[in-house]
């Protein structure tokens, strides 16, 4: 028993000694030792921790903006029995996989919208009012009005409606989405699952998000939004609309806390054209592009995997007039850097028609500047349809998991090709490097490592010369377009 008290006394003394040591030399030593290991808050930062802010109060905001939010219901034209009507949930091919638009899944659909002018102009999503026979708008006070579709744009998924109420209507003011910061609070109002004027809140999770096969750079939010919220406003704490809710990431059909809104600044650029012409006229460059992957960058001798790789130059377009060639990498457009290939179409489309622009490109490892003038988009040329068909495995196997064969005149005619010589992919081995790269049966190989190949012998010689443990660059023709693929030899 005494020994326990002694030990306790000694422990107390030791603790006191340690405390004195820490209060003097040890703290200085630790600070010095950790100077290159972690970062302390500077002494001039206030010397104290600021009191945490309380959560924002959305009560007044909801009361102020809710009257400007409307419910939109549509009825689709009847599809004759045995006809080829779309299946539920397939009204917009732009949203595939886990990315889905809200609502518009039945013959009678519910969506959201918001009033932007006192005389009854309303913003919503294009997919929410896609080819309806009737559109009806219900205000918060219960009044119901028939609506006219004034204009719509599928690329940005925006539609402009008009109702005639006979009196001034409450409006939702539009804000500045460029000034939105990640982490700031936002509120959504809409019609999820038919529960009208539901209010949810969250933060801006990210900016500049790209969804596969879509045109916009979306705002991402964790404010809870569900089917029926489509077309409703995303509102900042000032009470300004910063986005139009448009899509969710979901594996269940309901909210998983990842929602996407079209930036309101992009919408504001389109509104004058939608009201005046019913559609949006855009500029175009006249190229098919693809991302620059690390493998493509290596094969092209480019340091960084950035920019937009030109897979095809369309005839009579601004790019051809500028001298852009297939295989060029566009790194800057009109003074704006192109880090991600998906940025380029949006930059071009937002360029006024007939405006001169400068392109910075990389060609054969050299930087060049080219000048051209943006002209009106030619949608027919931009929409090249694919028609992949199943093909049997034949020909000579390669280390990439490809079987290729000479292109004969009959197959060339079937594929719509002018030439009757070349190499066509007969089959792609599942799980092979060619399969992972995205190559398909019936792709026609035009080049290997930038060298043309006109027959099987030339193809095999080019592959042998370029496949010594390195990435091989193939240029293939698919449907009406051409694409580059970088593939690695299989181990």
Label this structure with key terms:
single chain; 491 residues; 7-stranded antiparallel sheet; 10 helices
Structural write-up:
The chain is built from ten helices and 29 strands. With 491 residues, it is α+β, with helices and mostly antiparallel strands. The chain has a seven-stranded antiparallel β-sheet with strand order 6-5-1-3-4-8-7, covered by helices on one side. The chain is elongated, with a radius of gyration of 30 Å. The model is unreliable at 1-24, 79-97, 102-107 and 380-396 (pLDDT under 50).
Kindly, what is the distance between the CA atoms of the first and last residues, rounded to a whole number of angstroms?
Answer: 72 Å
The share of residues in extended strands comes to 25-35%
Strand order of the largest sheet: 6-5-1-3-4-8-7
Low-confidence parts, pLDDT < 50 over ≥5 residues?
1-24, 79-97, 102-107, 380-396
The largest pleated sheet is described as:
7 strands, antiparallel
Kindly state the mean pLDDT as a whole number? 78
Estimated radius of gyration: 30 Å
* Class computed from helices, strands and strand pairing: alpha+beta
Q: With helices defined by DSSP (H or I, 4 residues minimum), what is the helix count?
A: 10
Query: What helical percentage do the residues reach?
Result: 10-25%
What's the overall geometry? elongated
Count of DSSP strands: 29
Q: Helices, strands, pairings?
A:
Elements lengths: L1 H32 L25 H7 L3 E7 L23 E3 L6 E8 L5 E4 L9 E5 L5 E3 L1 E6 L4 E5 L22 E6 L7 E12 L8 E4 L11 E4 L4 E9 L9 E5 H14 L5 E2 L2 E5 L2 H7 L7 E6 L4 H5 L6 E5 L2 E2 L5 H7 L6 E8 L2 E8 L1 E2 L2 H4 L13 E2 L4 E5 L2 H7 L7 E6 L4 H5 L6 E5 L2 E2 L3 H11 L5 E7 L2 E7 L4
